[in-house]
Automatic annotation (TrEMBL):
Belongs to the FPP/GGPP synthase family. Pfam families: polyprenyl_synt. Its cofactor is Mg(2+). One of its GO terms (molecular function) is metal ion binding. Signal peptide: none annotated. Keywords: Magnesium, Metal-binding, Transferase. This is (2E,6E)-farnesyl diphosphate synthase. The keyword Metal-binding applies.
Amino acid sequence: MDLLIDEVDCHNKGPAMQLLDTIVERLSGDPDWSEKDESSIMEPYTYIISHPGKDVRSQFIDAFNLWLNVPKDKTRSIAKIVNMLHSASLLIDDIQDNSQLRRGHPVAHKIYGVPQTINTANYVYFLAFHELKNLYYPSAECEVRTRDLEFIINAELLNLHRGQGLDLFWRDNLVCPTETEYVDMVKNKTGGLLRVGVKLMMAMSKTNVDIDYVPLVNLIGIFFQIRDDLMNLSSANYTSNKGFAEDLTEGKFSFPVVHGIRADSKNHQILNVLQKRPETPTLKLHTVNYLKEHTKSFQYTLVVLATMETRIRMEITRLGGNEALERLIDCLHVDPTTIQ
């Protein structure tokens, strides 16, 4: 039987037609997104920031602001951006390193799963870009410098992923870098987030606009990472927060490990241990003692740190002095008697 079009009752719509009407109406507006939705997908991020670290990066921002004199509301936004990027990168790092602990607590992906944690970390990267809206000056006076804020973050995120990519490549292919290659990697990876903060401040500043603070930031970033590498293998505090010599379990070519391998290239003990990714103390204790006693890698790392610390203090003085920054370096000083 043929169905005539005029026989259709357009005013008596069934459930399917009502649903279609609802969909069509919603197409004209922005996608709906509730606070409940936001809270749900942000749980891994909310979890990691609920166990905060020492917030060293925010302290560095405050210290550099003694030179740059950026308004407080702007530095708060900059610190928020840097901490968002840092926490998001930690979510990814813990997955890539198969870590168990972060700041003494189970890592986020062990609770929320790998897929959700990856998505949240990527989402937070974009939220950090969105936060830039709070930095733009309304006047044309600073327009030239502030319009490059997105470029600053984009460039340093590229550097961060380049450094992380090399670190992972060396680990997964058991390729030991030279010390120079290692330092270049750290300059990209660890230095990137420190540079984000200071570069954003330099773009927002109306004071000392002709002074480049980036070389000092690079030096501090490398010092910070080499210190972290040493502490990972020797500090009881690191053991409680991340596990004993966790870098060995991750197969990481940290600075003392790179020195130890290259100091006695005919001995493959360290490479073999890294390949096995040891989780029990026996092999890790053996490797730590080998680095201490045979290759003297801890002693060598302490000398490097002391030399870098001296250079950092000299650079601070050259730039006009900064008591807050000096105090931060005091806190990062490594007492050799606590290591050997």
